[in-house]
């Protein structure tokens, strides 16, 4: 058998809440990897929404070289750099 000691101390509600938040945050960070806020690639739908164009327009822009896409597996993505350079041209 092991001996365990129980220690009681007085703590205010605000400090206790902050302590609990810190513990929960640390445990969540172990489980859920922190993702960067910025994406490197956008889906076709996200790109169309950002540029305010249709998916058909994106298709034609890819064919004529205006905005090149990248295929990963069977999905089509557009690089952040390409999208924002196009955004600057449009505005």
TrEMBL record:
Residues 41-83 form the Helix-turn-helix domain. It holds the Pfam family HTH_17. It comes from the Bacteria. This is Helix-turn-helix domain-containing protein. It comes from Chryseobacterium tagetis.
